[in-house]
């Protein structure tokens, strides 16, 4: 089967009934290997900027960040690169910026940290904008947003960075701006968020953890951490419908997108694109190339009538076996 998958990798991620699902990659460090995929993907759906920050010895300066970001943007140009602003806290600590808290996942995390330290965010945004100058394939994504004021504040800082650079003689284009849907509160604020952004990106890893109140890294409760929970699937269906109603693209960049059965369900829900770690691309592409959209939609309808994660998995496994 793996020979077969490899041979399919240059073929479009399209269902037998002609429905195209753009596949994107998640990146963090060296781009060399990932850029080899350029002809096979729609771009970078999530560049986790905290990864290079985590291996540094101090906050990288504007020039240094600009070099890192340019490598990504140039490497994948003209494809879009979605750069997420620093998402530290939770389980991602910087050695030179320790955060000690009793409940790190409910604490000072992502946008909460960078809005309290606008000087850190401003350096990052300026570096991203400068790196994209002349290439213009930058998309900016804000993580861990819980309410619209945070988003307003983040967008204000982005606009300030653009203005500052303009005053310095660097006329950068305003990138498209997106918000991560990973805190359950945002599920119910799609209209308000849509007024402020160009696209949505669902972080299913955190949305699962927060919707189910299950620490994503605690082995004791790992059996409860399940993206196939009917509540999460229901939320994803609503999110996709809301985004379509609001006329904004919605992608998903958590692990669920890299799972072939998850990818088929997301396709059936109408997600605009799926972003995953590079090693997941072949199996997801193979699944999409084997299953007509109409069949995936039928499966989704059946799944949405089930009550438990176990029932969902049982039916999914049965269908996936039939589709082998
Ligand atoms: C997510 O939460 O699903 C996500 C993509 O972000 P991260 O895994 O980096 O928290
Ligand atoms: Mg997340």
TrEMBL record:
Superkingdom as given in the UniProt entry: Bacteria
Signal peptide from the UniProt entry: none
Location relative to the cell: Cytoplasm
Family statement: Belongs to the PEP-utilizing enzyme family.
The protein's name: phosphoenolpyruvate--protein phosphotransferase
High-level lineage: Bacteria, Pseudomonadati, Pseudomonadota, Gammaproteobacteria, Oceanospirillales
Shown residues in whole-protein numbering: 421 to 744 of 753
